[in-house]
Structures are given as structure tokens and as C-alpha cells.
Specification:
Blueprint: H1 4-18, H2 27-32, H3 40-45, E1 48-60, E2 81-92, E3 101-111, H4 114-117, E4 143-155, E5 161-169, H5 189-193, E6 198-207, E7 212-219, E8 233-243, E9 246-256, E10 264-275, E11 280-294, E12 300-314, E13 319-330, E14 342-356, E15 359-372, E16 387-398
Antiparallel strand pairs: 1-2, 1-16, 2-3, 3-4, 4-5, 5-6, 6-7, 7-8, 8-9, 9-10, 10-11, 11-12, 12-13, 13-14, 14-15, 15-16
């Protein structure tokens, strides 16, 4: 399976690249002229279906014997093609008008990223997992996930209340799981280790006015579906958009991780976005989290925090350039599991090239450094190096 999948995807992407057309349609409509969302069924029901495929390859200055790119996740293999995401979705957006409306969304994902987006008791280990020691028994890196499966209700009270009920992506942070919605192929450490990916529960959203909106609800922890069903967290946030050029989003999650013990996990994220011009865009993100009285950390508190900065420039309507600088502090090694903790530093420079609306290439150059807290632990090259230089590129095809 590991040999067949990359070969098929590589061949498919090569065919796609050879058939680039300059239009705003997805790949299927561009190549065939058929748009499933113009069918009688989808138009009558209001259901929209779509998806994307993203895959890439990463090279590092150190050739780790295991081909692991750890502690970098998502593009976590070196010298190997990865089909990161084959994502299909069906969605009915609610109509935020004068009456009640109902909708929802379901996402299905196959690929190496699926391992990162699974929720305990929901979609974890749907494909038997191979630990690398038993060839032919299960799949080591590829899996499937259902990162979203929720219903949505719009109630026409005041300016309108939207309720999301089920399993859905987090509102916390800046970077997201879905490949088309990120500038860079690789991810920041804060997103990888400091934030949840999905939640199960209920979330209410309300627009107070044109520039202020609030969100709040109850969820069953981080990346969880049915473990510790009595331990509920508050998840909420506020977004302030004083102008079209500036926005500030503050989000927080807090609650017990265990339904019987007083073990609390709390974190917040602050994301400031500003466009200096129509082409030059800046993002500043700060995260802070704390794990209190946890047995997983010897009954001691553990905290993690970081700062990320992004600067992107739209060279033209097809080409963009960007830089990301980040610092992530894992004080006790609780989040990353590396030694007694330390500070991770990384700088990433990359391009986005989109010859049309359904094809995007994301090459990048990334440098990482880990400063251990006194124990001399090394994070890269299977624990043999303090730093690493990496080159990576992926391709995103939207259907």
C-alpha cells in the first residue's frame, strides 16, 4: 500500500499539472465541464460537495536513519512522498436570514495527516496500525479520519444565533488542519503541540454588530469523543474587526481533563491580523497553556507558550511570498515529550504559486533549533542534532 499510493498520486498530480487551465472552477469542472453542485439534487437541497488532495515531500540536512522529521509533525517524513490529505466534504450552510434554518457538514480525510486529526473513541485507528516492525500487517503512516461531523442550526433571535452541535475543528489559533487554508506546507510548533485540533460538543456564535462577534459552548476536551464523558470544557472566543484591514481574535478553552480528579487544562490564544497594504499582510499570534496537578507530569503543573509572526506579500494574483518566525516554549517537556523541555525556534520562508484556482504549489525553506533545559537533549535527526535545515514542497489540488 505504501508503494502503490505514492505512485498513483504522483502520476495523478503530474497529469493535473499538465492540464492547467486559467479559470475559477475546480479541477473536475475545469477538465470535464461538469459541476456536481449545479445538479438538480444539490441545487434543490442546498448541499455543496467538494474536496482537495494535498501531498508533498521533505528533505532535511540530516538524513535520520528512521526517515523521521520529528519533532516536526504533519510533514513528518523525510525523503518520502506523503499524501497528506485526500479530503472530501458535504455541507449545507445555514441561511442567516429572518427564519430558522438547518444545515451541517461532514468531512472525510485519508492520508498521513489523518493520524493527527483523530479523536479518541471516534475515528482513531480505523485502519490497523503497524509499528514498523511487522511488514504487511496494517498501515504505518496512512489512516482515515472524520474530523468534522456536525449539525448546524440558525435561530433568528436578535442578530441571529448559530449553533454547531457535533464534532468540529477548533476555533483556537491561527493555523488550521485543512491544507488549502494555510500559507505554509509545514506547521508552527504552537499549532502542532500547543493547541487542540478538534472538539465534540456544542458551540453558539452571535454577531453583536458588524465588528464584534462572540462564540461560546461546552466541549468534551481536546481531540476527544467519548473518553472521560463527565469532564467538560468551556470553549469560547471573541473577534473584534474594527476595519477591513485589522482583526483581533481571542479564544480560550478550560476544564478538567479527568471526570473524577481536579486536573485542569487551560489555554488561550490571541491572534492579531493586519494588512498594511492590499498586498502586504501581517499576523501576530501568542498562545499560553497550563496543565495543573496532572499525574501525567508527576503531579506537577506544566505550562507551554509561544509567539509566532507571519509576513506575507502578494506579488501578483498567482504568486505570493511569506516568512514565518516562531518561538515555542515547552517548559517541562509535557507537550512534546522531549527531555525536560526547552525552547523551539524556527524560521520558514516560502512561496505560494497558484497558476489557477484549483492548483497551488507551496515550496519552503525551514530552519529549526532546539535549546534544551540543561539536560543536553537533542531534538532532531533521531535525537542526534540540536538543529535542522529543511526543504519541502507540496501541491494542493481542489476538486
Amino acid at each position: 500500500m505504501k508503494k502503490i499510493i505514492p505512485s498513483l498520486i504522483t502520476g495523478s498530480l503530474a497529469l493535473v499539472a499538465a492540464n492547467v487551465q486559467a479559470d475559477d472552477a475546480g479541477m473536475i469542472e475545469s477538465l470535464s465541464g461538469y459541476n456536481v453542485n449545479e445538479s438538480a439534487f444539490t441545487k434543490s437541497t442546498g448541499i455543496n460537495v467538494g474536496g482537495w488532495a494535498s501531498g508533498g515531500i521533505t528533505y532535511a540536512s540530516h538524513n535520520a536513519p528512521s526517515n523521521s522529521n520529528s519533532p516536526i509533525t504533519f510533514n513528518d517524513r523525510i525523503n518520502e512522498f506523503q499524501l497528506n490529505q485526500l479530503n472530501l466534504f458535504a455541507e449545507k450552510a445555514v441561511n442567516k436570514g429572518s427564519g430558522w434554518d438547518f444545515g451541517g457538514r461532514v468531512d472525510f480525510m485519508f492520508g498521513t495527516d489523518s493520524r493527527r486529526t483523530q479523536a479518541t473513541g471516534w475515528d482513531d485507528r480505523m485502519i490497523p496500525r503497524n509499528n514498523g516492525n511487522s511488514p504487511g500487517e496494517g498501515e504505518r503512516f496512512y489512516d482515515v479520519a472524520f474530523p468534522q461531523a456536525y449539525a448546524e442550526i440558525y435561530a433568528p433571535f436578535g442578530n441571529g444565533i448559530t449553533a454547531k452541535i457535533g464534532h468540529f475543528y477548533t476555533i483556537i489559533g491561527y493555523e488550521v488542519v485543512t491544507s488549502p487554508d494555510n500559507f505554509f506546507y509545514s506547521h508552527a510548533y504552537t499549532m502542532q503541540y500547543g493547541e487542540p485540533f478538534t472538539h465534540t460538543g456544542a458551540l453558539l456564535s452571535y454577531d453583536i454588530n458588524d465588528w464584534l462577534s462572540v462564540t461560546g459552548g461546552a466541549v468534551n476536551g481536546w481531540d476527544n469523543f467519548r473518553q472521560q464523558p463527565g469532564a467538560w470544557d468551556f470553549l469560547g472566543g471573541v473577534t473584534i474587526s474594527p476595519s477591513d484591514d485589522t482583526s483581533l481574535a481571542i479564544s480560550l478553552i478550560s476544564g478538567d481533563t479527568n471526570q473524577t480528579d481536579n486536573i485542569n487544562t487551560t489555554m488561550y490564544s490571541v491572534v492579531l491580523q493586519h494588512s498594511f497594504t492590499e498586498k502586504l499582510h501581517y499576523v501576530l499570534q501568542h498562545d499560553f497553556g497550563v496543565y495543573q496537578n496532572g499525574a501525567a507530569n508527576g503531579g506537577q503543573n506544566a505550562d507551554w507558550y509561544g509567539v509566532n509572526q507571519y509576513l506575507t506579500y502578494d506579488i501578483n494574483d498567482k504568486l505570493g511570498a511569506g516568512v514565518r518566525a516562531e518561538w515555542f516554549r515547552d517548559s517541562q517537556g509535557y507537550r512534546t515529550g522531549i527531555g525536560s523541555g526547552g525552547s523551539f525556534y524556527a524560521v520558514t520562508a516560502g512561496l505560494n504559486y497558484a497558476p489557477n484556482a484549483w492548483l497551488k504549489l507551496r515550496p519552503e525553506l525551514r530552519y529549526d533549533y532546539f535549546g534544551a533545559d540543561g539536560d543536553g537533549v537533542k531534538a532532531y535527526d533521531d535525537g542526534n542534532e540540536f538543529d535542522q535545515l529543511g526543504v519541502a514542497m507540496d501541491m494542493i489540488v481542489t476538486f
